[in-house]
Design brief:
The protein contains 6 helices and 33 strands. It has 548 residues and is mostly beta strands. The strands form 6 sheets. Strands 21, 22, 24, 26, 27, 28, 30 and 33 form an 8-stranded mixed β-sheet that branches. The longest helix is centred in the N-terminal third of the chain and has 15 residues.
């Protein structure tokens, strides 16, 4: 009887699923987003910002992408697991070749059982930095954790005065990033100049779900509505036990949903506060930048002045304090991978931070295509090339990843293809030159939160776990774009034996590579066996530098 019920429920669920199809023409747009600088950016269908994407749990999202840029492009649905369709994940030369200029490609994204707050962004040449991003909201078919009347989307971005390629060339010319003294980004709220964002309307007595998305690429954001309490109910597309907080502190790529109850009276309006800051540039006196916006209960009502306590006296959602709603206990560990942020001088005389000793560099064959075409050798990490930073995982193993950060700069790390359990954070390393509050040791409660993007603060470690139940090739990288650009990333080659039996790359994707002269079989160099001739010379560390 139970089996019949499960089958019936699945049939009913599928009957309600829809196919949502969008046509995106990705191209250059020109405008002033930050209130100061007229510049070229990247939008969709001539718009920037372009509309959020709304679907419902179980829907199939089809995005027909036409590339009107003069360079390749691709998109990534940040947080979508793509179980069984690894080739639609998006990162260029990891799971696909970029879409060439003037060509089109269709992404077929299955939401399956996922719902919550996500976003879609470019994943070729760091085009998300220049505007190619928008919210993705997957509405649930079930009763929410806490009832609410309406929902609103809040997005935070950092916006630079120059395009990524120009800015990165400038950064590359510096001996030390800490000498960077210009071109600090302005903040955008809901896609526009943070000081000119339209008011948020509250109706007395109503409950609002605010879906808050940090679409930044460098800066952290803090968000508060003084005089109002937030109840956190979701992190990165996973429902949490309700948690009362005073505000949100978010790194690049992270998302939260909070419930805010409007006051019963419209006697006063209120102001929300958004603080944008970056530890990477703190020594230059450029952070924090504070923005305010109106919570409008009634047109013309006076704004109530509220004295806010110091941040240290407020409750913020710590990674380990959030508990998952479905009460999953800690997973037992089968394999442990420890990755330490280190700054080296390399054989090419670059001074760069990386995970371990290997800088990630793309190879000549998309790594997924190597995993699918190398037979039994796909289980040997060497075939992917010396700069791929590849870790081969066994099917269904529980993998514990520890990331150590002995430097002062905060990071967020995004796991493609997985949510991870946040088990523990604590102090790692110290500094004799940087004055900062010591990191506290924090152990998760009995039901650790699952999420796809985690913060690793300066002088901190984080311990996370996931089960290798999604065969594929999955990127894991720092979500500060200049760090990803410099190679702060690893690639998980997950269950290649199972992957070869379950998935094959659509012909149109293979043909798209061939038209660009990109090999679609063989090792990282497009050869057989361990012959990696043809790859650029590998670079290796020759000395370690102070991470402070």
């Amino acid at each position: 009887m139970l089996r019949q019920f499960i089958v019936f429920a699945a049939v009913v669920f599928n009957c309600f699923a829809a196919r949502v199809e969008l046509n995106w023409d990705v191209g250059y747009v020109f405008g002033i987003r930050d209130g100061f600088t007229y510049r070229r950016a990247i939008g969709v269908n001539g718009e920037l910002p372009f509309p959020p994407v709304h679907v419902t749990q179980g829907d199939t999202l089809v995005i027909n992408v036409h590339n009107s840029l003069d360079v390749p492009t691709s998109i990534h649905a940040h947080g979508l697991l793509n179980n069984g369709t690894n080739y639609y994940d998006g990162p260029d030369m990891v799971t696909q070749c970029g879409i060439p200029p003037g060509e089109s490609f269709t992404y077929v994204l299955e939401t399956k059982n996922q719902f919550g707050t996500f976003w879609i962004h470019g994943h070729t040449r760091h085009q998300e930095v220049d505007g190619l991003h928008t919210p993705l909201i997957i509405h649930s078919r079930k009763q929410p954790v806490v009832d609410y009347d309406e929902e609103l989307i809040m997005t935070f971005e950092d916006w630079f005065t120059t395009e990524f390629a120009v800015r990165q060339a400038y950064i590359d010319s510096l001996e030390d990033i800490r000498t960077l003294t210009s071109n600090f980004p302005k903040a955008l709220i809901n896609g526009y100049d943070g000081n000119k964002t339209a008011p948020i309307t509250f109706v007395p007595g109503k409950k609002y779900r605010l879906r808050v998305i940090c679409m930044s690429i460098n800066n952290w954001f803090k968000f508060r509505i003084p005089g109002h309490t937030m109840t956190l109910i979701e992190a990165d597309g996973v429902e949490s036990m309700p948690l009362e907080v005073d505000g949100l502190s978010m790194g690049p790529g992270q998302r939260y949903s909070v419930i805010v109850t409007a006051h019963d009276s419209d006697e006063f309006n209120y102001m929300y506060n958004v603080t944008s800051y970056s530890d990477a540039l703190v020594s230059q006196g450029l952070t924090p930048m504070v923005y305010t916006g109106l919570i409008n209960y009634r047109d013309g009502a006076p704004v109530k002045t509220i004295q806010s306590p110091a941040d240290e006296q407020l409750v913020w959602p710590e990674e380990t304090a959030i508990q998952v709603l479905d009460k999953q206990a800690e997973l037992p560990v089968d394999r442990r991978i420890e990755l330490t942020m280190k700054k080296f001088t390399y054989t090419n005389q670059e001074h760069l931070t990386t995970l371990g000793t290997t800088l990630y560099k793309p190879v000549l064959v998309p790594t997924l295509y190597t995993a699918l075409s190398m037979g039994d050798l796909a289980a040997n990490s060497s075939v992917y090339g010396p700069q791929t930073n590849a870790y081969v995982l066994k099917h269904l193993d529980v993998v514990e990843v520890v990331i150590n950060n002995p430097e002062r700069v905060d990071h967020t790390f995004h796991f493609h293809g997985h949510n991870v359990q946040v088990i523990e954070t604590g102090p790692y390393g110290n500094s004799s030159t940087i004055s900062r509050e010591p990191v506290a040791h924090q152990q998760s409660g009995p039901w650790p939160m699952w999420r796809d993007t985690v913060q690793v603060r300066g002088f901190e470690f984080i311990r996370v776990r996931f089960r290798a139940d999604n065969p594929g090739v999955w990127f894991m990288h720092c979500h500060l774009s200049w760090h990803e650009y410099n190679g702060v990333a690893v690639v998980f080659i997950e269950a290649p034996d199972v992957l070869q039996k379950q998935q094959s790359v659509p012909k149109e994707m293979v043909d798209m590579c061939k038209r660009q002269g990109i090999p679609t079989q063989g090792n990282g160099a497009g050869n057989q066996g361990f012959d990696l001739s043809g790859l650029p010379p590998a670079i290796y560390p020759i000395s370690v530098e102070s991470a402070n």
